[in-house]
User: What shape does this take?
Amino acid sequence: MTEENYNYRTSQTLLRNQFPGKGKLKIPVIPKFEPRQEDFDAFKISGQSTALYDTITPFIDVPLKGGGSAYGGEWKPNPTKPQDQRFLGEPGETKISYTTKGELIETHIGPDKKADYEIHHTDHGFPKYHKVPHEHKVIWDDRGPHLSHEEYSVKQYSGRVKMSAFVPTNSIEQNRFESISDFKWCMKRGGEVQFDWKGVSYCCFGCICPAPGKKPRMAIARAGSAEVNAQTEKWCDTADELLEYMVSGDRLRDVITQITVMSRTV
Assistant: This one.
């Protein structure tokens, strides 16, 4: 058996390898699928308002976004996105990674070997609403990590770091959104994204508060100074609304797989 063949047969993208086998033939025991409303968002067909619907994009592309499964499998780092590795480690460890722009991210691993908070040494192009550095709690569910909208004082966690490990940086190609569903998933997980299109930089956020005590929302704007943010920001309640934002004369929905993604947190 060749190495390539072995890697294919043992790949976590195959359902038979995501679940433990049972019996002599080791037939995978796959949990019953429990549907959620968000599972079907990507199947909405165009024909009405484009602000509400997009062309069909199969939700089965979940493995491209990480090792999580729509069928109940435990989340695992996406092997094609090295920075996913920062969310798992040894208790007390701090994973050190950098965005493609060279910005430092420190990810602390909690007692369950999963990340419990991150320190971002960047404002993600949105200084009007982000301090440098700032922290986010990492919240876990069966779909994987989710970055909270709250920001915390860095002093809150001082003295807890025991050791650190370096995590490789995603390439620009690895950061790329492969589909509309990929972008929506990123926003639903509280992702923070910086991207370029036609020589202009933009930033968008899946979970951020417009003011202290206010309900968290999604936002998109031109990246730059607080003044530039204020002049160009758009606050939204869904990723579909974000996708209607105009970037350098184009609707984001129409170019989402073509934009140059400089950094994305999930």
